[in-house]
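ok here's Palmitoyltransferase, seq below lol
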Amino acid sequence: MPPGGGGPMKDCEYSQISTHSSSPMESPHKKKKIAARRKWEVFPGRNKFFCNGRIMMARQTGVFYLTLILILVTSGLFFAFDCPYLAVKITPAIPVVGGILFFFVMGTLLRTSFSDPGVLPRATPDEAADLERQIGNTEDIANGSSSGGYRPPPRTKEVIINGQTVKLKYCFTCKIFRPPRASHCSLCDNCVERFDHHCPWVGNCVGKRNYRFFYMFILSLSFLTVFIFAFVITHVILRSQQTGFLNALKDSPASVLEAVVCFFSVWSIVGLSGFHTYLISSNQTTNEDIKGSWSNKRGKENYNPYSYGNIFTNCCVALCGPISPSLIDRRGYIQPDTPQPAAPSNGITMYGAMQSQSDMVGAMRLPLSSSPDPRKQCMREKGMEM
Ligand SMILES: [Zn+2]
Ligand SMILES: [Zn+2]
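and the structure came out like this:
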């Protein structure tokens, strides 16, 4: 290469690909490899993670496996013992429709169970310290007068949504003011956005990010249960016309088991689907319905501020609206200089590395509205995640 021809530009290019500069590049890379831990490994909530953080579930998953076994065994027996007979005697469309329904049920179940329901990230120690200071409850903590069981009185803020006053409660574990409709799941130990309920049958919370899949799961499961039940009965009736009722039961003993499972589960599944159809059409959550948050009994002026006022719009928003990105960057790497979420400490904040950023933060520190850079970054990055 002719020296001096290209000037500083070429020198710069050359030095970037030269072997000399690779040695200082290598050492931080090595360091990263040693210390590369993902955020799910230190996640503060009580959740289980699989596949390197891709799958997220509640801690207790026993009932979820029961759900899985019931669906797999009942459908498996139906396809193995009833479908061959029905396909020949009635129409081959029966196993086809049953198969489509089965895969839809399994898909929506796994999507509900394995995804982030909309967990709100906990405040970092710095953010928690700022918030505590704004609340003005810091003196006794700073003086160290707080005892082990200390818990400050409940704190709330009020916001007005569509003319309704909504109380925002402070979460002592996550150290944030919960956004409207969020609630803390005691089993998963997280605040969840638009918290519906914790469902042990799917082994996860049901919230903003997986509610539609939960609804589609119970709705399709009602259809599948009714479908299997109806055709198992048809199968037994057709056989008994040929060989008599007792011989028909002897010839296909699996049908008896399927009919029993379907008969006992169909009522609750269909009832639950109906209940959630009502909730979706009025844009309520199970949590709000149980508490009677928007019930007329609380006064004539009490109405649901989240409802769009028409059943069709409410359904469209719940089922077809955009899915918000996950706010917990669970597959992201932990940066050594990034503060980690504050550990739950019964309302007592650790004042380790307090910085004077309090002026920057508004009176209400909602993680959604005024997030610090790491969370915004996380939101951008997680656009593709489940
Ligand atoms: Zn919380
Ligand atoms: Zn939960």
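fwiw The radius of gyration is 28 Å. kinda neat tbh
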